[in-house]
Design a protein that fits this description.
heterodimer, A: 261 residues, alpha/beta, 6-stranded mixed beta sheet, 10 strands, B: 430 residues, mainly alpha, MetI-like fold, 16 helices, 0% strand, flat
């Protein structure tokens, strides 16, 4: 699948020199198990990074450290100029700037779709209810399910739920979006609708970190692919180079396994 | 080509099968009976035995109920009227209903607890039914003070002072809570205590300003006492239980251990022991001369007991929530109290409803245990003044049957409400 020249041009235009996330010498342990080893990563505003790797390689843990869902023990993470510390106010501020989409959607089942989307803007941003609802409808229209606003998450299909989850994050007007295997829990028929939504988001210039095995998506929208194994960044490159000319043996093996059938 | 897979493996469906109605079988009562009552030899025997048992019970109970005596002045009168025939002596209920319901409450003031009871429905309505206007909650907030004033009487200044104390405490809390929760909480408590302390000097306890006749706690009894204990203890123990359950999950070791020790200790001790402690043992520790109301002491004990159980029920609900719900709340930037209030507790409490109702019904029935520490609740009244009197010594079935019926009506009501609530809260449309 070759990328059109048009897509490449439009991709590079949006990447700036402004640093969105800076991770320096970050280490993390679960008990005595060393999950993340000496991670260094700089993400620029508008970049779309796909992180892949075998299971247990620490890719989810890495992006969960960025919004402090997991605590790192060593090193420094700076998000949008704010350095993560154990100060709760600091963490809450970063979280409200960083949207997150989970593998299992994690919508709030006791609230309607609209309430799911307006909850955080109303309580965290103190947006008036009416304005929050207008914003929510705007983003629900963007993910193409405005007609489901008054339903409960339990009444929606997996793909629709994941699109609501994306809209819910967008309602906080985040500057960075993290996606933790957003399509892994979906039926094949529904993966496309979620990926389309993410592609659209990428075209709007959102800074995105995506943990996924969807290599088609990586080829189409990423401007950097990171391969992780055993808690380390093994290789990172532009998608074209990464897929056609992988350097490390581990990457070659991984690519042959997921692309080989 | 037919739509049946034939010998060859390749098969393509060409026509979609239309849905067809189920096979016509015999319907109606006979079919139902054959399926449910006489489906096998064993079931047929059980059905016949069951019918015989019901007949046996009804043939004993019905004459006793229908032939009952409602007008007599003593059990001897009853026996004379019945003249050897089977029949209940329900006259004890008509004769002593005021003792059964109100205990030794002054007869000319029965309207006061009755009014408090009726107002209770208005006070609980906005809490129990969320579709009512939120403004009604103001009355709910005022109700405890109104009810206290109505039932115990005395000067209106006492409940007003108590209300002012709570109000001042709340205002101080809201002012300080932005700084930190602990400052707000302890500041509020301190302010409230200060108001009560200073107010205690200003108001003379014997003030007759808008006073209703004062009723002593020992005169409050009958089913009214069970209701007061049940309602007060349950309303206080529910929030306390939530706090204990959250405290037990806390990452702060001191808070966690206080909650764990409290819950495990209270759960490990029989309620009756706690009631004896309230009745007898506490008196040794209080300074001589202090008059710490017995009903209040009992309330504190029952509340602690129920709170410990409710805390464990809610902990079960909290544990049942997927971790993702906490993470979703966190990732949106909600702080601890927001994500608890808006996301975690509504779901955890919904899961816990059957367990909480279980505790509530059990607690309500357990209020009859106070009869053991010589308080005259419904059971205490029956066992004490009524059965001990020469007039009614021996009418066990009628009295305890009445007590059972009263409790059943209330407990069944609670259980029906909880089932309705669960249906209301169902959003997963399974």
């Amino acid at each position: 699948m070759a990328m059109t020249d048009d897509a490449i041009a439009h991709m590079d235009a949006k990447v700036s020199d402004e640093v969105a996330i800076e991770i320096e010498n970050m280490n993390k342990w679960y008990g005595t198990f060393h999950v993340l080893r000496d991670i260094n990563l700089t993400v620029y505003s508008g970049e779309r990074i796909v992180i892949c790797g075998p299971s247990g390689s620490g890719k989810s843990t890495l992006i969960r450290c960025i919004n402090a869902l997991e605590e790192h023990q060593q090193g420094r993470i700076t998000v949008d100029g704010t350095t993560l510390s154990s100060d709760i106010k600091n963490i809450d501020r970063i979280r409200s700037e960083v949207g997150m989409v989970f593998q299992h959607f994690n919508l709030f089942p006791h609230l309607t779709i609209l309430e799911n989307c307006t909850l955080a803007p109303i309580w965290v941003r103190k947006t008036p209810k009416k304005e929050a609802e207008e914003t929510a409808m705007h983003f629900l229209t963007k993910v193409k399910i405005p007609e489901q606003a008054d339903k409960y998450p339990g009444q929606l299909s997996g793909g629709q739920q994941q699109r609501v989850a994306i809209a819910r994050s967008l309602c906080m007007k985040p500057r960075i979006m993290l996606f933790d295997e957003p399509t892994s829990a979906l039926d094949p028929e529904m993966i496309k609708e979620v990926l389309d939504t993410m592609i659209e988001l990428a075209e709007d210039g959102m800074t995105m970190l995506v943990v996924t095995h969807e290599m088609g998506f990586a080829r189409q929208v990423a401007n950097r692919v990171i391969f992780m194994d055993e808690g380390q960044i093994v290789e990172q490159n532009e998608p074209e180079e990464f897929f056609h000319n992988p350097k490390s043996d581990r990457t070659k093996l991984f690519l042959s396994q997921i692309l080989g059938h | 080509m037919s739509d049946k897979p034939a010998h060859n493996v390749a098969f393509v469906r060409e026509t979609t099968l239309p849905p067809s109605p189920p096979p016509v079988a015999e319907t109606g009562a006979i079919k139902w009976m054959r399926e449910n009552l006489f489906s096998s030899a064993f079931n047929s025997i059980m059905t016949i035995l069951g019918v015989l048992a019901v007949y046996q019970i009804l043939s004993l109970a019905l004459p006793w109920l229908l032939n009952g005596v409602w007008n007599a002045s003593s059990i001897r009168d009853c026996r004379e009227i019945l003249d050897g025939a089977t029949g209940g002596c329900f006259a004890v209920l008509t004769e002593r209903w005021h003792q059964l319901v109100f205990g030794r409450y002054p007869q000319d003031s029965y309207w006061r607890p009755t009014l408090a009871f009726l107002l209770m429905f208005a006070a609980f309505a906005p809490v129990l039914f969320s579709n009512l206007p939120k403004k009604m909650l103001i009355f709910t907030g005022l109700y405890p003070f109104i009810a206290y004033y109505l039932v115990w009487g005395g000067s209106v200044l006492v409940p007003i002072l108590s209300l002012v104390g709570f109000a001042v405490g709340y205002v101080v809390y809201t002012r300080l809570v932005d700084r930190s929760f602990a400052t707000g909480f302890f500041g509020g408590v301190a302010a409230a205590i200060a108001v009560w302390y200073i107010g205690g000097f200003i108001i003379n306890e014997d003030s007759t300003f808008l006073a209703l006749e004062q009723v002593e706690s020992r005169d409050i009894g009958g089913f009214m006492l069970n209701l007061i204990l049940g309602v007060v203890c349950l309303s206080v123990s529910l929030p306390l239980g939530i706090v204990l359950a959250l405290g037990r999950q806390s990452r702060m070791p001191i808070i966690k251990w206080i909650c764990v020790v409290f819950i495990e200790f209270i759960r490990g001790v029989p309620l009756i022991t706690l009631l004896f402690v309230a009745n007898v043992v506490l008196a040794y520790f209080l300074p001589p001369g202090t008059n710490f109301d017995l009903i209040l002491r009992v309330m504190i004990m029952i509340t602690m007991f129920a709170a410990a159980y409710i805390a464990e029920v809610i902990r079960g609900g909290l544990a049942a929530l997927p971790r993702g719900q906490y993470e979703a709340g966190d990732s949106l930037g909600l702080d601890y109290s927001q994500s608890m209030r808006l996301i975690i507790l509504p779901q955890a409490l919904k899961i816990s409803i059957p367990g909480i109702v279980n505790v509530a019904v059990g607690l309500f029935k357990d209020t009859t245990l106070v009869s053991v520490i010589s308080m005259f609740d419904l059971v205490g009244m029956v066992r004490g003044p009524i059965l001990a009197s020469t007039d009614w010594n021996g009418v066990y079935w009628e009295l305890f049957g009445f007590a059972a019926l009263l409790f059943f009506v209330f407990c069944y009501g609670i259980s029906q409400y909880s089932q309705w609530l669960e249906r209301q809260l169902q959003t997963d449309h399974r």
